[in-house]
């Protein structure tokens, strides 16, 4: 069995819906996880926002506009009048439900129920489209098996037991359709995973079923895998054909923004390969993420903007114990993660992204030593083979950055990456110079 997840752009129009059919109808058993149509979730969030602010007329007006948009899609999607009528009927059912909530008091529960409509509609439309084409499929609502616990984490035992019960009803269907993103919480209420949650849904399902049943998880988007540099700023980038889970996690965290690093973890936990593919170019093999590593000197480069550098200097650090603990306690007290850290005998430099409690943290640090802050910084992460027993690794990195001020270097904390801090204004130049130096054969 394989799991295919399709994002909002993959179901963004009637043509895109139809383009899914040859991809999923190949005779192999698969679970198809769908997002809402592109833009729908944002509009549903806006509807919910109007509802919460008391503008019920505005919420209903936007709801009717979105209803009309879906009726237009259904009118173009189906060629048979009977299947078209069924599609229009299910669309009205979903939007009538949203409108019915406006007569009640706003609650977070009702907000989640509104936002869930996008995935419920897209999966129902695909199910009806396949039926119109004479292709058997089964629609399994995610709300019957997907649940998070009191901490917002997947309840794997519940998911596994209930999903297996649903799959036991499969007869000769090869396509099982379900929703991404939506779930139930520990109280049984409609809830949702974090944004990007459809990717997360796919890997949670894979982990719940296990590697014995799931051979591969495929995440289909509008990009042909992960590139070796940021194509928005750098020419001549290429798709990286294979990455280890650790390499992919490093790249995702440090700027590969089209997928989220946390969604990899369930697949890594069960050692299920994840492949990133492009619905616009289905013949492209994409990027395979697995436990295997090819140990190439340099795999890819990513950049993370908007970080803050903090430097604490104090003579009291010299030959002292407990000093680092006091620094870390300042960040722990305000639940602020530290991205990178380097130390010397009399100073500590570290990087954070979340500035929510920055003033309070700086106040605590000023009691420890002299503090300097630099905002608008960028972390550049180079992923490759940086095992500690290697010799001669990384010279090309620093040759490329010879004319760029390097503010901080993190080397040795990971066998998979080197991270470098530069001013944000130097980011594009750094990415381009690294591309020329690390991947000369691609130029």
Explain how this protein is built:
By secondary structure, this protein is α/β, with parallel strands linked by helices. The chain has 2 domains: 2-222, Acetylglutamate kinase-like (Carbamate kinase); 299-442, VC0802-like (2-Layer Sandwich). 38% of the residues lie in helices and 21% in strands. It has 14 helices and 16 strands. It has helices at 14-24, 40-52, 56-77, 81-101, 108-115, 117-132, 156-167, 197-209, 245-253, 264-269, 323-333, 358-366, 395-400, 427-438; strands spanning 2-6, 30-34, 138-139, 175-179, 182-184, 190-192, 216-221, 242-244, 274-278, 287-290, 298-313, 340-343, 347-352, 370-384, 408-410, 417-423. The strands form 3 sheets. An 8-stranded mixed beta sheet has the order 3-4-2-1-7-9-10-8. Strand 12 (340-343) and strand 13 (347-352) form a beta hairpin. The longest helix is centred in the first third of the chain and has 22 residues, at 56-77.
């Amino acid at each position: 069995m394989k799991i295919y997840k399709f994002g909002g752009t993959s179901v963004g129009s009637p043509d895109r819906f139809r383009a899914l059919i040859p991809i999923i109808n190949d005779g192999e058993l698969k679970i198809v996880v769908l997002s809402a149509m592109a833009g729908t979730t944002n509009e549903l969030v806006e509807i919910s926002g109007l509802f919460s602010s008391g503008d019920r007329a505005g919420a209903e007006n936007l709801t009717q506009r979105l209803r009309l948009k879906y009726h237009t899609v259904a009118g173009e999607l189906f060629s048979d009048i009977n299947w078209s009528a069924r599609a229009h009927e299910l669309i009205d059912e979903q939007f009538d439900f949203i409108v019915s909530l406006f007569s009640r008091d706003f609650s977070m529960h009702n907000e989640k129920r509104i936002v869930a409509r996008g995935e419920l509609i897209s999966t129902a439309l695909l199910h009806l489209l396949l039926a119109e084409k004479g292709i058997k499929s089964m629609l399994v609502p995610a709300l019957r098996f997907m649940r998070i616990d009191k901490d917002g984490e997947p309840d794997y035992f519940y998911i596994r037991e209930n999903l297996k019960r649903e799959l036991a009803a499969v007869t000769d269907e090869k396509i099982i359709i379900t929703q991404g993103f939506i779930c139930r919480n520990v109280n049984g209420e409609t809830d949702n995973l974090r944004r990007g949650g459809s990717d997360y849904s796919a890997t949670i399902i894979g982990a719940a079923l296990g590697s014995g049943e799931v051979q591969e998880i495929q995440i289909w988007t509008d990009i042909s895998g992960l590139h070796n540099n940021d194509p928005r700023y750098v020419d001549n980038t290429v798709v990286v054909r294979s990455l280890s889970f650790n390499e992919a996690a490093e790249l995702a965290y440090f700027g590969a923004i089209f997928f989220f690093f946390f969604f990899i973890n369930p697949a890594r936990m069960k050692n299920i390969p994840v492949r990133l593919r492009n619905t616009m170019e289905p013949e492209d093999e994409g990027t395979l993420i697995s436990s295997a590593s090819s140990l190439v000197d340099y795999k890819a480069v990513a950049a993370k903007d908007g970080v803050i550098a903090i430097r604490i200097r104090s003579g009291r650090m010299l030959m002292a114990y407990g000093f680092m603990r006091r620094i870390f306690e300042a960040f722990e007290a305000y639940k602020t993660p530290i991205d990178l850290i380097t130390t010397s005998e009399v100073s500590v430099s570290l990087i954070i992204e979340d500035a929510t409690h920055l003033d309070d943290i700086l106040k605590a640090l000023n009691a420890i030593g002299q503090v300097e802050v630099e905002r608008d910084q960028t972390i550049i992460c180079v992923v490759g083979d940086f095992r500690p027993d290697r010799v001669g690794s990384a010279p090309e990195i620093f040759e490329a950055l010879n004319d760029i001020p390097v503010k901080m270097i993190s080397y040795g904390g990971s066998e998979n990456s080197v991270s470098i801090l530069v001013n944000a204004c130097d980011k594009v130049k750094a990415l381009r110079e690294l591309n020329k130096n690390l991947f000369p054969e691609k130029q």
